[in-house]
Amino acid sequence: MPHVVALYRYPVKGFTPESLDALTVQTDGRIAGDRVLAFRFAAAATPEDRDGLDYWPKSKGLALESFPGLAALRLAYDDATARVRIEHDGKTLVEGGLDEDGRAAITEAVTAFVLSSPEGKRLARPGRLPLTLVGDGVRSRFQDRSRGYVSVHSRASVGALSAALRQTIDDRRFRSNVVIDGVEAWGELSWEGEVRIGDVRLAAAGPIVRCLATHANPDSGARDAKVLTTLTGRLGQREPTLGRLLILPGASGTVGDGSGIGGTIRVADEVVIG
Q1: Which residues contact 158 (CB under 8 A, 6 or more apart)?
Q2: Backbone CA torsion sign across 110, 47, 124, 69
Q3: Are residues 123 and 111 in contact, defined by beta-carbon separation less than 8 angstroms?
Q4: The pLDDT of residue 16
Q5: DSSP letters along 44-64, please?
Q6: CB–CB of 177/8 below 8 Å?
Q7: At a CB cut-off of 8 Å and minimum separation 6, what does 197 contact?
Q8: For residue range 187-216, what is the model confidence (pLDDT) as tens digits?
Q9: CA pseudo-torsion sign 143, 172, 198, 79
Q10: How far apart are CA 187 and CA 179, in angstroms?
Q11: How many angstroms separate the most distant Cα atoms in the chain?
């Protein structure tokens, strides 16, 4: 029987995940605490950003696609106290709240880290500095798409990719919320209709076309696996695809929309298709 084997949320867009035993699917179709913060480039400070977009293109700020060294950081977010802690090499790099002083300290530490990384020159380009830590820590508004979604992939698909690459590939490269086992490789790409995970009823949406973020080792940040060309070359895909999106029926996907019926997904929950 297909079932959940791992759950992740990403409090700060482009940074490392938190592994959890349970995730809450909100009534807008987004995961609670997922992509609630982001580091914005200076040139991206448009009126729309200040008023609140329902999505966040990677080009607006720090993202693993262009700054793979971010994978070497370990991030934790405490919802109750709205505090961010970032570690590097087992030591606390910075910890702070979302007040003005806390945001300034977090931003200063992250800026210094990225500037000292191999991608530092990219951050120093015109229009990128100073960075600003944006988001209220509550609204999940920094996804790549305007509609809220839950992302999922199977262990078998990652296993097939590992075999094609002749190296072990970690699930975390694909930044999914839900990882499942008990289905055939690439089986999730053929799902149609309802997908029920535990008591949460979702609907299959589009497949996930991957980007260079998947080339980054989730521990070191080194680009050590040619995922994209392996998917389109050795595995014969038209586009580099792994995993798919699930949406919440009835929800428009707008941040804060309460028209859907969410719920809680837990590790070991059964996954029922159709």
Answers
A1: 169, 170, 171, 174, 242
A2: positive
A3: yes
A4: 92
A5: G--HHHHH--S---GGGB--T
A6: yes
A7: 4, 178, 265, 269, 270, 271
A8: 999 999 999 999 999 999 999 999 999 999
A9: negative
A10: 13
A11: 52
Residue for token pair 């020159």: 121
Mean pLDDT by 10 residues, the chain (274 residues): 97 95 95 95 73 70 95 96 97 98 98 97 96 94 88 98 98 97 97 96 96 96 97 98 94 68 96 94
Enumerate helices (H) and strands (E) in the chain, giving the number of each: 5, 15
Could you tell me the residue ranges of all domains in the chain?
3-29+144-273, 38-134
Rounded Cα–Cα distance for residues 131 and 266 (Å): 35
The encoded tokens of residue 221 equal 């940040």
Q: What is the pLDDT of residues 39-67, one digit of tens each?
A: 999 998 765 554 455 667 888 999 999 99
| Topology of the domain covering 3-29+144-273 | M1 Pyruvate Kinase; Domain 3 (2.40.33)
Give pLDDT, residue 148: 87
Residue type at 65? E
| Entry pTM | 0.94
Nearest CA-CA partner of 247 in 29, 31, 28:
29
Q: What tokens were used for 236?
A: 């014969």
Pick from 65, 68, 84: nearest CA to 76: 84
Q: Read off the amino acid at residue 147.
A: R
